[in-house]
Amino acid sequence: MQNLDYFKDKKVLIIGLARSGFACANLLLSLQAKVSVTDNQENESIRKNASELSLRGIKVEFGKHTQDFIKDNDIVIISPGVPNESLAVKWAKELKIPIISEIELGFILCPAQIIAITGTNGKTTVTTLITKVLEKAGKRVFTCGNIGRPFSSEVGKMRKGDFVSLEVSSFQLETIDTFKPRIAAILNLSRNHLDRYSDMSDYLKAKKRIFKNQDASDFLILNQEDPLIRELANEAKAKVIYFSKKDNLNPNQCAVLSICEVLGIDKDLILKVFAEFKGVEHRMEEVSKLNGIKFINDSKSTTTEATVWALNNLSCPVILIAGGREKGNDYSAVLNLAKTKVKSVILIGEAREKIKKAFNDLVDLKEADSLKEAVSKAYSKAVAGDCILFSPMCKSFDMFSNYEERGKVFKEIVANLK
C-alpha cells in the first residue's frame, strides 16, 4: 500500500456494516485509525460483524443511528448501499464532516494501476473478462468493487506494477474526491435507480464522475453506439477511445478488447480468453436440466435491459420468474419480446403489482409469495424443451440481502426439485 500514514490517529466513522463496511473497519484499524461503525439495520450478518469488530476494540452502533455517534469524527466513509437520505449521512453533512466512499479509501492507499468500469449493464462481465485477460498475459490483477470483493479488503495485498479491475456503481461514484483511474470505461446508460435519482440526467451525472479527475495521461473508453455516452467525450480531459460492436463480438467483449489493447495486450490472446470464458455466476448461468427443462439463474438482472438481453439470447420457450424491490424500471420495455418468447410469467416481491400492470394481461401472469413457490409454479407449467428463467428485473432487498444470496437460493430450490 501507499500513503500508510494518511488515516493514522484520525477519527473515522463508517456508515454501513455489511461487506464493504466490515472490510473498511478492519483495514483502518490496521492503519492505526480510531474507527467506529454505525448501521441502522439489525440482522444476523450485522450482529456477527458487530461482534467481531467490538472484540477488536472498534466502537459499533447498530439497529439505529444517533447524532452523538456521528459527531467529533474527522472523516466519514459511506458504504455503497447507504442512501443519501440516511440520517447518519444527513447529520455528517450538517456537521461538515468530509464524506468519502469506500472506493475513495481504496484509491488513497492503492499503488496499482486502476481500470474502473461503470455503466448500467455488463459491468460484472467486463470486469471479470479484464481480469482473465490480464492473468492470461502474466499480470498480477485484483478484481474488486461492486462485483463482490470490497476494494478495501484487497488493497493491502497490492504492489506497484499490479492491476485492479474495479467495478464501480453510480452510488460509489457519488462520494469520490480524488479517485482517478488510469483507464475508465462507461459501457452504456439506460433507465435505472430512479428510486434514488430524480431523472436520467441525475443518474448520468453520477456515472460521469468516473472521469472527473482524469487527465491527458489517462484513457476513457466510451460506447460509440450510445448517444448519451458518446457525447461525454466533449467533457473529458483523458484520451478518448470508442468501442462498438464488430467482428462477431458482443459490446462487452468489444469494451474489453479496447481496454486491453490500450495496455498493449495481443489481440489473439484476448480472443482466446473470450473463447474460453464460461460466464459469471448469477448471469445467464445454466443451473440444471430436469426432465428436458432448463433452469437458468439470471439473479444479477436488476434492470429490464438485462432481462431483454437474456431473452434475446434464448431460443427456447420461456417461463419467466421476475420481481423484487422496485427501483424505477420501465417494465413495458420487455413486452415485445415477452409476447413472442414468454409462455408465462411468475411474479414475486414488492414490485409485482407494477410489473403486472405494465404487462396488462398480454401474457399469462401468476403470482407467488416466495421464490420457492414461484419455482414450483413455473415447473408445473413447463414441458420438455422449455426454459425457466429467473431474471428478476428488480433489486433483491425486499426478500434477500443481495443478488448473490437470491441466486444461491434459486439454485438450492432447483437442486431440491431433483
Question: Can you give a write-up of this model?
Answer:
The chain has 418 residues and is α/β, with parallel strands linked by helices. It folds into 3 domains: 11-97, Rossmann fold; 104-276, Mur-like, catalytic domain (UDP-N-acetylmuramoyl-L-alanine:D-glutamate ligase, 3-Layer(aba) Sandwich); 285-417, Protein-Tyrosine Phosphatase, Chain A, CATH 3.90.190.20. The protein contains 17 helices and 17 strands. The protein has helices spanning 19-30, 44-55, 67-70, 87-94, 102-109, 123-136, 151-154, 170-173, 200-207, 227-230, 251-262, 267-276, 304-312, 335-341, 352-359, 371-381, 403-417; strands at 11-15, 34-39, 59-62, 75-78, 99-101, 113-118, 141-145, 163-167, 183-186, 219-223, 239-243, 285-290, 293-297, 318-322, 342-347, 364-367, 387-390. Strands 7-8-6-9-10-11 form a 6-stranded parallel β-sheet. Helix 4 (87-94) links the parallel strand 4 and strand 5 (99-101). The chain starts with 10 loop residues before the first strand and ends with a helix. The model has no long low-confidence stretch (mean pLDDT 92).
CATH class placement of the largest domain: Alpha Beta
Task: Briefly note the structural class of the backbone.
Answer: alpha/beta
Mean pLDDT across every amino acid position: 92
How would you name the CATH homologous superfamily of the largest domain? Mur-like, catalytic domain
**How many E strands?**
17
Numbering strands along the chain, what is their spatial order in the largest sheet? 7-8-6-9-10-11
